Amino acid sequence: MHVHCYTWSHTHYTKPKGPTSNLLYINDFSPKPFTKENRILILLFFTSIFSYIHSPTLYTMAPSSRLSTSFLTLCLFQFLTGSYSTTFTIVNKCSYTVWPGILSGAGTSPLSITGFALQSGESNVVSVPPAWSGRLWGRTLCSQDDAGKFSCVTGDCGSSTVECAGGNAAPPATLAEFTLNGAGGLDFFDVSLVDGYNLPMIVEPQGGTGGRNCTATGCVVDLNTPCPTELKVTSSGEGVACRSACEAFNDPQYCCSGAYATPDTCKPSSYSQFFKSACPRAYSYAYDDGTSTFTCASADYTITFCPQPSTSSIKSGNPMAVETSGADLDGRYNRVMAVVVSVLVAFVSTTEFGGLSLAVSL
Fold first, then answer.
1. Would the pTM of this model clear 0.85, i.e. be above it?
2. Does one domain contain both 115 and 154?
3. Residues 232 and 259 in one domain
4. Shared-domain flag, residues 175 and 232
């Protein structure tokens, strides 16, 4: 079942320390997102460090230097055991400004950034800790009044500021939902229209594994114009969002509640079918699990607002028209990981420091 009524954490978060707070600097001194692609460079860097650790020079080190080396080894061990972050690259291809909001689930490590402005054509990289769960959405038609109160016509989180700080998205809003490093070490993700729709959005895994189910999902079409009149939200005479039937009518048969709280009793309605026919990979109602939940292992994710249907890897109305990407990079990444893990195993299993010879073919 797709649970769309969450118990979310209402912790207040600190603001980010700057636009490059989640970027990593490599040797060319240009900022790079801390993605799995760049981890290849880091792994090679640490491999060279291990070559030094295995040299006789270590015997002559002062105790403090040996302690520093041990600390470095522990850092690498943490890196190799999966304690690194996942990255969300959030892209705005809309012709207007979008204000992304982020909410962490209850019991999940909060993020340092919970909301920001994203101008048309801009992108931002957000680092997400291991085992994180939460949701991300786009707010539209936002403004600040004379008293300094910030609010949005769609997707407002009620915080009165750009940062959502524990506030949830007011429906209707298109939601990207994640549970990272869940059962079997897999990431579970979906794009949900259960709480309605306010803008096109897709989620695309980058560099992950998981076969056909590790692929893009979302909704690439504009549903605000064709939205049924009884569901349509308007502003200045134009459709700006499309409510769910549950929100519009508060009827248990649409909300999958009360006597309709099981998959056998809560069935798709004509309203949920409107969403499903346009966006076949997105959740359209609470029990729409079979075609709407996706899984990956060791992936980063690109979340795009207003993707172009002609260039997107997910096609409207065709649930099978999805292309995967990053397979070659993923294989190279896994081979490099295997090499460095071998070096680590050799290091921790050796009682004396000596030479180490390793032939590698990437």
1. no
2. yes
3. yes
4. yes
